[in-house]
Amino acid sequence: MIYIGNINYSRKREGGLVCPVSIMHSVAVIVFAATYFTWTSAVFHTQRQVVHKKLRYLLEPPVYAEVTARRGANVTLPCLLQTKPPRYKVKWTKLEPLRRGVENIVLITNGQAQKGYGLLGPRASLRRAHPLDASLRINNLELGDDGRYRCELINGIDDESVFLTLRIEGVVFPYQSTNGRYKFNLQEASEACHGQDATLATYKQLYRAWTEGLDWCNAGWLNDGTVHYPILKPRAQCGGEKFRPGIRSYGPKDKIRDYFDAFCFTSITAGYVFFIGGHLTFAEALEVCREKGAELARVGQLYSAWHFRGLDRCDGGWLYDGSVRFPITTPRERCGGLSDPGVRTFGFPNKTQRLYGAYCYR
User: Fold this and answer.
1) Transmembrane region positions (predicted)?
2) How far is residue 170's CA from residue 188's CA, in Å, rounded to a whole number?
């Protein structure tokens, strides 16, 4: 796994590049940083003791309770019966903690017919490899399919369920407004991520990215309306040197009135990113991509190309949002001077400058 190291950037520049200098937080933030998740506290999700009801009809997931796949793939979530009651239904539900009171049903079957529901329904079906197979197949996975699912057998007497997690493989990246630091409320952060071929990251996705090397000193929204930032190297300007590495938490914030950056999540793409050299303005970069039957790449597409396809280029190029970045998988002295792989940035330069090439997506 490629580490996402040294993607921090501030407004202090050296030789034209944006330096990986952590942005100073206010004293209030430093005081509040005591409420963070450390390595041990962050894994509380998996350490709660749960008393399971003994299953009569369903089998516990036979191998793994977590299935991993990439965007665009087809996946099967296993759910097998030990025996069939005389009359029953199997209901598949995507558990949506953010939509309280709303059950996100994916599919219902009575063993003969089946019916899909909601946004997932048209892409969902039963595998039916044998008469006791109620496994759910999902085609052409999307970023929003990531999450926890329930397979529930309903017979009116002894209803029972098994739970599985679908994890989309991907990469988390911090995203900032063109207007500067801390300019998004929750809705604006979500829209900003979608505009860059991504979604707002979940806490689990941010936590995994932190274990893989993400160290970032600006707080950002997650999809549950909480605000966090991941720290691997504690330092004074990032919540204090005395705290251990961990996910610093601001907790739930006002989703309309509070403003932060965003942590976005993306996965592999169907297309590919390529570079066109030259000294181009932003408008000229848009045009040269169109001439190649492509468009300027989104930030998420560049991160995906770097993370999944190993894109390594030492040239700054325009992206669709007006930023200039370049992806490095093999760090070297003349390509940003940083020791870890990452996507480097020049921020959002004046669009009339003729200094950069273009990263196109087709």
Assistant:
1) 17-39
2) 22
| pLDDT given at position 52 | 57
- Amino acid sitting at position 74: N
Task: Please report, for residues 167, 192, 221, 321, the alpha-carbon distance to residue 318 in angstroms, rounded to integers and kept in the order given.
Answer: 31, 17, 25, 8
Q: Is residue 3 part of a domain?
A: no
3 state DSSP class of 261: strand
pLDDT at residue 101, rounded to an integer: 65
Question: In the prediction, which pLDDT does 86 show?
Answer: 86
pLDDT score of 36: 36
CA angle at residue 208 from 102 to 96, to 5 degrees? 5
Q: Are residues 251 and 222 in the same domain?
A: yes
How far apart CA 237 and CA 110 sit, in angstroms, is 58
CATH number at residue 156: 2.60.40.10
Say if residues 356 and 339 touch (Cβ distance below 8 Å): no
Q: What is the CATH number of the domain that holds 334?
A: 3.10.100.10
Q: Can you list the pairs that 140-143 forms with residues at least 24 positions away whose Cβ atoms lie under 8 Å?
A: 140/72, 140/73, 140/74, 141/69, 141/70, 141/71, 141/72, 141/73, 141/74, 141/75, 141/166, 141/168, 142/71, 143/71, 143/168, 143/170, 143/198, 143/199, 143/265, 143/266, 143/267
Query: What are the structure tokens assigned to 77, written together?
Result: 């979530």
How do strand 226-231 and strand 356-361 relate by DSSP bridges?
unpaired
DSSP bridge pairs for 38: 246
Q: Which residue has the tokens 């580490």?
A: 3
Domain stops at, among 151, 168, 185: 168
Contact 136, 164 (CB under 8 A): no
For the whole prediction, is pTM greater than 0.70? yes
Binned at pLDDT 50, 70 and 90, residue 64 comes out as low
User: How many other CB atoms sit within 10 Å of the CB of residue 67?
Assistant: 17
Q: Which of 46-55, 97-106, 316-325 has the highest mean pLDDT?
A: 316-325
Q: What is the mean pLDDT of the chain?
A: 86
